[in-house]
Amino acid sequence: MKILNAGPGFSQPMTEDETISFLTSGRRNIYIASLDEKNEPNIHPVWYYFDSSNQKFYIETSKYSKKKKNLENNEMIYFLVDEPHPPYKGVRGKAKIKIHNDIDTVVRICETNMKKYLGSLDHPMAKELINLAKKSESVAIEISPLYFSTWG
To answer: What is the CATH number of the domain that holds 122?
Structure first.
């Protein structure tokens, strides 16, 4: 894991263990920045799962979403996960993405995120989103960071 100091002179970078703990705890959004068809920036807040074993993020979204459309045109994104309240800390970086369409992968990522953010697969929103994933209306996006730039 390549970790850079995002706040030289103001803060120290997180260690690898601190970075993994930060990304796997809590219910923060990942903000992904992409370019649209006009080459203009878009930022999308998204629920995510971070797999510490392979150091990748996974999100699920509608296959008709703006973010999916943007990512089809450019496999490089910038991302941010932060704690907006003191004590401030966060992780950002550049990453390559891969779009997964196979239903098993999409449903697994969707269910993982529903458990994390809604606490249960019985929540009405979880049921609806999982149902859409099972109908092939969603995709899973794998985010592979090239580096982490941290502060905290």
So the answer is: 2.30.110.10
Residues 107-123 have pLDDT tens digits of 999 999 999 999 999 99
The token pair at 71 is 């990512």
pLDDT (tens digit, 9 = 90+) per residue, 23-43?
999 999 999 999 999 999 999
- Number of domain units in the chain: 1
Among residues 82, 78, 85, the alpha carbon closest in space to that of 7 is found at 82
Tokens of 60: 């699920």
Residue 69: count other Cβ atoms within 10 Å of its Cβ. Answer: 14
For 120, the domain range is 3-151
- Report the predicted TM-score, pTM, of the whole model to 2 decimal places: 0.93
The angle subtended at Cα 3 by Cα 2 and Cα 9, nearest 5°, is 150
Q: Which amino acid is present at 103? A: I
Which one, of 18, 2, 40, 11, lies nearest residue 148 by Cα?
2
